[in-house]
Amino acid sequence: MWSGRFREPLHPDFEQWQRSLSFDWRLLPQEIAASKAHARMIAAAGILSGRELEAILSALDSIAAEFAARPPADIWNRAEAEDVHHFVELELQSRIGDTGLKLHTGRSRNEQIATDLRLYVREQGGLLAGRLAAWSRALAAQAARAGEDTMPAYTHLQRAEPVLVAHWLLAYSEMLLRDIARLNDGAARLNCCPLGSGAVAGATLRLDRALAAADLGFRAPTANSMDATGDRDFVLEFLHALTLIALHASRFAEEITLFATAEFGFVDLPESFSTGSSAMPQKKNPDFAELARAKAARIEGAAQAAAMLLKGLPLAYNKDLQEMQIPLFTATEESLRLAELLAAFTAALRFNRERMRAACETGYLNAMAAATYLVHKGLPFRKAHEKIGQAVRYGIERRRELNELTLEELRQFDSGFEADFFSSITPEATVNCHDVIGGTAAARVRQALAEHEDRLLAALGQKAMGQNAIGWNSGNS
Question: Per residue in 268-312, pLDDT tens?
């Protein structure tokens, strides 16, 4: 593609080392789409005749169809092709002769790869958002199944207060709504078309860049040719969004790993996502959860690699940027697999409601509700906190929970205790006293679940179709 200037061939080892077709073959659909847009743009400028344009577009479609049905090795084993751009050019020439060589008029590989990567990130981000939505729906379905079942919530990994299992599950759905929003925000920022930017200074032909931008679904052409060919901010932003998704998946996986231990016993791991031990016959190991937790390291590593590649690069295009594709492809593919599996894994989980409720009934998780009871009796919260703390200490020394103390024993701490105290510190009452927006009260969680689908569709940029949310199970799960 550039041999006219050179007298000597490339060193054979360097020639192989600098090739990118072994990984950028993934961009073939985007390269075809961008090439068709460029063909239409240069045809409008009078560079291609109508017959030549038709031949190029038809040949590009045949390349796309043929290689979509063939293994990727059939692309990357094309020995004479340096990269995906060269591959398409060679395939075009083999199909329509020298007419295919006209396609490169008015463009550079620098703008081609910038365009292909924007298309790739936009498309993969949309696909990933859909898979995150599927995981979010699986969480909501589990929340509906759990109904009013309770579990301990933790701070500092110590039991804090009871919450609904549904409330805990929907907390992860909130993270996913933000993740989807981040993907959409990034897609909006990258949605400008570099075609027509040339190698660095802009095309040498008077091309209608808006035509190519509209053809590819971009909102506008890029505003500066140097920035367009040298920019990879959108890749780094996408990788950081993937990192946050992976971190959220890792936190979920960590909790499931803990909750599946014999010490917790809150959840039964699905056998289809677990493995055994080659030495200990009784084991059921949380392999999926552990691998999900580990993927965060690989994805974050990709973001760090991309950041280091960009650091210190002068404008505009530099060959260094070729290396950014590898972490991008790796992190994207891992994220897509992870999100898809998380939806199936979450749907297969089964919770031990008796064990979780029993955990809510020991350890004085109703102490906050007890202090609130005294507040309603007119005591300042700081005083109420102190008196309930004294009652807790008294109970610890006697190995009895607050609800196991007698009214007479409680009144030694404050005369405000009445018989209605005991009904105000049951697990149900303790949960329902958190009756604020975003709280774990059953009515608030029921409302959050009812709103889940509409909020998810809004995050995806879709309109609700009038369907109701997943139904709440008011009985036992």
Answer: 999 999 999 889 988 999 999 999 999 999 999 999 999 999 999
Of these residues, 49, 58, 94, 277, which one is catalytic?
277
Question: What does the angle CA 431 – CA 416 – CA 411 come to, to the nearest 5 degrees?
Answer: 100
To the query of whether residue 167 is one of the catalytic residues in this protein, the response is no
Interatomic CA distance for residues 76 and 66, integer angstroms: 14
What mean pLDDT, rounded, does the chain reach?
94
- For residue 49, indicate whether it is catalytic: no
Q: Can you give the length of the chain in residues? A: 477
218: left (phi over 0), alpha (psi -120 to 50) or beta: beta
**Domains in the chain, CATH or no CATH each:** 10-105 (1.10.275.10), 110-354 (1.20.200.10), 367-425 (1.10.40.30)
Q: How far apart are CA 125 and CA 120, in angstroms?
A: 8
pLDDT tens digit string along 397-412? 999 999 999 999 999 9
Residue 81, helix vs strand vs coil: coil
Which is the catalytic residue, given 3, 156, 272, 278? Answer: 156
